[in-house]
Fold Ubiquinone biosynthesis O-methyltransferase.
Amino acid sequence: MSDATVSNATNSATIRPEEAEHFGKLAADWWNPAGSSAMLHRLNPVRLGFIREAVDMHWGGDVESAKPLANRRALDVGCGAGLLCEPLARLGAEVTGVDAAEENIAAASNHAAGAGLPIDYRHGEIGTLGLGHFDLVTSMEVIEHVEDKQAFIAQLAAHLAPGGLMVLSTPNRTLKSRTLLVGAAEALGAVPKGTHHWEDFVTPEELEALLSDAGLAMAEPRGIGFSVGKGLHLTDDLALNYIVTARHRS
């Protein structure tokens, strides 16, 4: 796709102002592993393990390499305060992070500067920022918060370079996720109230259809589950949360 195609992939707005406001209020506490984003801190190693394996398989790299993303561009959409952007940068990528909340971008930029990581953080709709193409496009627990899911996936696809890899994760819309991720999680203070709206959760079948409409093929999803013994971990059970890769159809 040309840069013009990237910038004009869709004119639809994907940001919900109320969602940006909700997460913006959490920005100052985002990097506190015991704070309001504690669940994300526990989830991040699971995501990273999946991403590392997917990167190694996709590009056939050295599994022992400390920087498997060297000389590659990575885009994380809905980056929050940079919990995923920073490890991607440490894996060697030239990283751009985009978020709907200005407060998150400020917190992310300050934290990256303190860590000596040259991450390019941007605020706004990805379709209007003229970012170009990326070898790796990630968006973790974001699609359930956007206004127009089809437009959002189209924007992600428009930024994926030929031969690139996309990684997405999101809660599944099941009775189990409604009970545990919304009801129990908020009641126990595991996530701030108002974070999740169950009706906006996306099933694997729905996500596959959205990706297909955008010209992408989705691989077999892996579940992210929880147990007392293992904590959060990859599983074949997709009932709570799942993570997938996608790439341009050949």
About this structure: The mean pLDDT is 89. The two ends are 14 Å apart (CA to CA). The first strand starts at residue 73 and ends at 77. The chain is about 35% helix and 20% strand.
